[in-house]
């Protein structure tokens, strides 16, 4: 699933409407963890449109179901994403190639409104609270360790 102007900005849920861009894209897992696109149920989208925000969920193929878009409060601290080079499938592949963990419990794409962040980022969280951050355009990988709550 590539983030292109065709499928990111022209949604079947919003016929004839072209949102300004994506604010966040978060993967919904089928189980407790995932290691491939087939382990995902779908994607939760948060899009910016005419000074407001809409949220909706869409399943991944082979399923084809979606929720109706609903108005939500626009979050502070996020830039609008107009495009990015690394799609979800390629981001998962980059995560696995980094050999930090065999699977993840969260995956999302967003662009923090910070001077140091020059591109959208994919953020994967592992079961031991490692955060793997992948530049959505540069493909640069960095990690941040967190505290584990597992016994």
Percentage of residues in strands: 25-35%
- Main sheet: strands, sense, barrel: 8 strands, antiparallel
Give the C-alpha Rg.
Answer: 15 Å
Low-confidence stretches: 1-10
* Separate helix tally: 2
**Domain module count:** 1
Strands ordered across the widest β-sheet: 4-3-2-1-5-6-7-8
Ends apart, CA distance between termini: 37 Å
Percent range for helical residues? under 10%
Could you say which structural class the secondary elements and strand pairing correspond to? mainly beta
Morphology call: globular
Overall mean pLDDT? 85
List SSEs in N-to-C order. HEEEEHEEEE
Could you tell me the number of beta strands? 8
List the helices and strands and how they pair.
Blueprint: H1 5-8, E1 21-29, E2 40-49, E3 52-59, E4 70-72, H2 88-97, E5 106-110, E6 121-125, E7 131-135, E8 141-144
Antiparallel strand pairs: 1-2, 1-5, 2-3, 3-4, 5-6, 6-7, 7-8
